[in-house]
Write a structure and sequence with these properties.
It is built from 3 helices and 6 strands. It is of the alpha+beta class. It has one domain. It has a 4-stranded antiparallel beta sheet with strand order 2-1-5-6, with helices on one face. It has a two-stranded antiparallel sheet with strand order 3-4. The longest helix has 25 residues.
């Protein structure tokens, strides 16, 4: 009886290991948490990074804050003039829009995360989200960063604070 139990548990262990190895081989992981892979179903196929996906830097690796012609006040004015508050909206929380700025200062691969004021995942009204994405995509004056005199690609993000459907703050 003990020999049978030992044989069965050994076979089970071997099959489990083989199964795990098989699943691991199929998985692929991002280089870093938060990397944005090209998705032809949702991304503009004409947007290209200049130095390959493995060379896109995080904003905090740049040694300086994000650069936009006209600085943050220009971004604030853009959203102030274009964002339309939904009337009778009780939508509250944060919408984070993350994207890539390539070596030419062009943007692409936009991704959206939405949360309430307690940072629990929620979904905002599409009219709010679509406006923020459209306005951000229309900004054309992102800074070009250089490493050793070569222009680089980098990740950028904007966080929008929404209170009663109104855009109250833009971070960073």
């Amino acid at each position: 009886m003990k020999k049978s139990l030992l044989i069965i548990s050994t076979l089970f262990a071997l099959l489990s290991c083989k199964s795990d190895r098989k699943n691991t081989e199929k998985q692929s992981y991002s280089r870093w948490v938060g990397d944005i892979a090209q998705n032809e179903k949702i991304d503009d196929v004409t947007f290209k990074v200049c130095n390959g996906d493995s060379q896109i830097l995080q904003y905090f690796n740049l040694g300086q804050g994000p650069v936009y012609t006209g600085e943050k006040s220009s971004i604030l004015n853009t959203f102030k003039s274009k964002y339309e508050t939904l009337s009778d909206s009780d939508q509250n929380g944060f919408i984070r829009l993350r994207f890539i700025v390539n070596c030419e200062g062009k943007t692409g691969r936009f991704r959206v995360l939405q949360s309430d004021e307690n940072f629990e995942e929620i979904e905002f009204d599409n009219k709010i989200v679509n406006q923020l994405v459209t306005i951000t995509k229309g900004i054309e004056k992102w800074g070009i960063f250089y490493r050793q005199d070569d222009p680089i690609d980098y990740y950028m993000y904007l966080i929008f604070k929404i209170k009663d459907g109104q855009l109250t703050e833009i971070l960073p």
